[in-house]
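User: Need the bound-state model for adenosine-5'-diphosphate:
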Amino acid sequence: MLPPLVEDNPKYLVELEHVDKHFGNLHVLKDINLRVKKGEVLVIVGPSGSGKSTMCRTINRLETIDSGVIRIDGQTLPQEGKELAQLRAEVGMVFQSFNLFANKTILDNVTLAPIKVRGMDKTQAEREAMDLLSRVGVASQASKMPSQLSGGQQQRVAIARALAMHPKVMLFDEPTSALDPEMVNEVLDVMVELAREGMTMLCVTHEMGFARKAADRIVFMADGQILEQDTPEGFFEHPKTERAQDFLSKILTH
Ligand SMILES: Nc1ncnc2c1ncn2[C@@H]1O[C@H](COP(=O)(O)OP(=O)(O)O)[C@@H](O)[C@H]1O
Ligand SMILES: [Mg+2]
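Assistant: Bound-state model below.
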């Protein structure tokens, strides 16, 4: 067993201990153990269906777990209620599909949660939102509707929207997979910048250039298990398991 943490001095921002989950008969997460330090950038790779998205979704409780423990900044994720909403707000998430509110302006998309969930006043929320939109390079689009933006711009807004909640950790689940190729880099650049600024990040992505550039650690999943964890160099140059060797040979030869 892993030793319990001292509540007020957590060394890890995200911890999963012995996490198991089934979807019916399907054992989708098998004894997952993962610890992420503050400022660490993890890239999670693995074949489709290996449980990467499910693992991310359990971290901000979009999915329940059957057994095990998940802690965010030393606090165990509660089952439900106000505490859960608060802990969830500390975990920003960006998905493959942009999930912006289609009937709200870009600015309103970013200010909505800080005003509603954090109780921030509108002027301050808008000031912060404009700063964030500048950081991701779309400040000039603030008054537009999501449909007027390109996919790459929308995904950068989705990142700004998540950052507006001042999350302690950001989860990215294939944030560039739905984008036209010419828009992939503008989103990855924002992610690289965030990583450089010290954001704690868990990123599911097939972008191996990003993984090599930004990741502190690569986590390889297959069949609901974490099979390998290593530095990018260690993982890409010397994958240990046959599953990882097979996976890498498939993605790197294209
Ligand atoms: N809501 C769900 N209900 C039933 N099965 C699911 C659900 N979500 C995912 N699965 C299954 O769980 C497995 C892992 O899925 P997922 O976490 O999406 O994998 P990955 O992100 O690595 O591709 C897959 O076999 C998938 O079909
Ligand atoms: Mg997935």
